[in-house]
Amino acid sequence: MPELPEVELVKQELAPVVNLTITDVVLSNYIYKGHAAGKRTIVKDDLKSFIDIVTGKMIAHIGRRGKYLYFLISDEFQTTHIVSHLGMSGAYFIVSDFDDIKEANFKKHWQVIFTLNNGQKLVYSDIRRFGEMHTHDSLHDFPPFARMAPEYTDEFSRTHFLQTLRSKKFAEKPVKAAIMDGEVIPGVGNIYAAESLYLAHILPTKKVKNISDKRLSELFERITEVFELSLSRGGSTISDYRSVTGGKGEMQHSFKVYQQDKCPLGHELKTKVINTRNTFYCTTCQR
After folding, report:
1. What's the domain of life for this entry (predicted)?
2. Is 4-147 assigned to CATH 3.40.50.2000?
3. I need a surface site. Which of 4, 39, 179, 181 has the fewest CB within 10 A?
4. Quick check: 214 pLDDT over 60?
């Protein structure tokens, strides 16, 4: 699943569609079949309502909160938002022609096509169809945003991080599970949790209450470091993550522990399922 750096990169690469107007919306048969079966596949709104709300709106701004993208769209009568999550394998492409999507799987599994007033198309593809898209008049109406911690770049983020980890809710949790909760810090998933904890020399299985403030502050620094490194390297492409232009990231070549057999110092790594995800760690370097 794309984590904060990958979603931030997609947001940045979608900049060319800002100030363009959506003139038409086409949804895939997968979406129509899913809704007919009561599954609300990808588009969580009523499909006719979604198309009616979005068509004719100008994309005024594209933002990100945690692992979510949001599009501020407006016309002379209404301003609203499309909130989008990429799920496990979602990807956006800006193309002049549908055949400009080079990878067969992404071309086959297109889900939403927004035609823009400059003739280009903004295509959302999703191979596994775990992504989501829905509209909200206000972002405050979307519960995950209301609960979400400040972004790691916010001046209050470190204070919030430390104070929230000291709350009763997180005291007994393994630290890896805690930092993957958006109420603590947004956008940390399985990959960057493992990498950050290794760099901070903290075992992912260690309960939050047993970690000092100093070490938790160091962990915040390492999360920030890993995010920034991933942004500079185009994100991590493990399987399905692609940039808007179809490119792959390079961060996977810099992993210290994730999907590795040994840590950088040559120690054999352990694996354990934490928070339903396989976790890589070194019992020599981490304590």
Report:
1. Bacteria
2. no
3. 39
4. yes
